[in-house]
Amino acid sequence: MWSLGLAKSGLDGFGCISDIFSLYMASLSAQADYAAFEERRKRTVYLDNLSPQVTEPVVRTALNQFGNVKSVQFIPNYIEPRNIPQCALVEMENTRQAEAVLSEISQFPFMISGMPRPVRARPAQVGMFGDKPNIPGRTIRCCWLDENNPNFKIAQKTKALIWKNAAESAFLQKQVLQEEEKLARQQDETLKANYKKFELIDSITLNDKTGPADKLAKHYDLKIAHD
Length: 227
Prior knowledge:
single chain; alpha+beta; Alpha-Beta Plaits; 5 helices; 11% strand; elongated; disordered N terminus
């Protein structure tokens, strides 16, 4: 009995050591995965205010001038599934290229696919990634709360605050869309007015030397160079 108990105790101890070793290796793997994710985040740029018509090839063509675009991931909008500006995570080849994109777009207006407003860019944050790994050593647990639980009221207030923020976001989005439509109309009118001006200038200085400018030059004995 004693020898059998000793053998059983030895097996239990070996199993415990094996479990500890497995947890240790899992922890090392989680830390390595999170470190690799952080490196990817640092070379990723968050683009906002993109036209709904923008596709991955369009983004690649626009940003390839700053370096090599490795991946483009559009972030779906589950709150407002309408024809609204979209956003995307663009991973560059290295952090230097990502910084070049941020610097250029922040200093100069950068239009992609004819959006009324220039796109906006900022460094990507951890919460923007849907495939982000768990933080090593952190465990998230969910449970149902009874009405007698002290945290029940806190959960109710949090739920109400979320609904309030969603309503405020929808209202602001509506205002932004109205401003975008107004700005698009203004830009269209400005474009048409400038086009008419160029047409008028072109009609005055015709290449066949029969325009009003040529007639005036002939009357006052002046020479006009037609380029």
